[in-house]
């Protein structure tokens, strides 16, 4: 905005100079000076246009790339949640996570309420006494891959950042966090904004890395999960889709 105001002021001043040239400069020099001044006006006009358009173009491209990265982060999160459900912990690397998806199965169960004779109470009181129980029936198994990805094999490349710096991969770690004397499994997957927007305007990228906003991605990375707290959500706002 500061540059825009300065450029606008210079353009107006230059137009004023053109009028002064018409009034005070000898006729022989006027054509050359007119050309120089109008070229200057054109250049400053172009720079002013860019100062307005470049942030718009940057934000449009940023939003497009973030949306694609978030889809990959959701795949990673869903895969990790399935891993925890089956194994009790999160995978520490993509190789083991992909192998898990290829081979693991969910066990399908059905819970139902029932009642049986309480032998001890029946003996004590001399009359049939029942107690409520929950019966868990195993119905079968279903492939984790089929459940999460159906016929798609995109999980095999979910470690690759789909936009930005060529060949870049998501960072992923897992571990345990102690709370109330319990070791709770945690994981985190992330990619830096510098990777996602590696070929974009450096000044606008520097501003994006410092974003603190309810409708923006705060911090210098897009990520899901956390190693410092028990959470599996992403750090993007709802404008990019569900983060949980």
How does this model look, in words?
The mean pLDDT is 83. It is built from 7 helices and 5 strands, in the order H-H-H-E-H-E-H-E-E-H-H-E. The chain folds into 2 domains: 2-53; 54-240, no CATH class. It is 47% helix and 21% strand. With 244 residues, it is α+β, with helices and mostly antiparallel strands. A 3-stranded antiparallel sheet has the order 3-4-5. The longest helix has 58 residues, at 30-87. The protein is elongated and about 125 Å long. A hairpin with a 2-residue loop joins strand 3 (171-179) and strand 4 (182-192). The protein has helices at 2-24, 30-87, 94-103, 119-125, 144-149, 193-196, 202-208, and strands at residues 105-117, 130-143, 171-179, 182-192, 221-225.
Short description:
The protein has helices at 2-24, 30-87, 94-103, 119-125, 144-149, 193-196, 202-208, and strands at 105-117, 130-143, 171-179, 182-192, 221-225. It is α+β, with helices and mostly antiparallel strands. The protein is elongated and about 125 Å long.
Q: Helices and strands in order, then pairings?
A:
Elements: H1 2-24, H2 30-87, H3 94-103, E1 105-117, H4 119-125, E2 130-143, H5 144-149, E3 171-179, E4 182-192, H6 193-196, H7 202-208, E5 221-225
Antiparallel strand pairs: 1-2, 3-4, 4-5
Helix pairs in contact: 1-2, 2-3
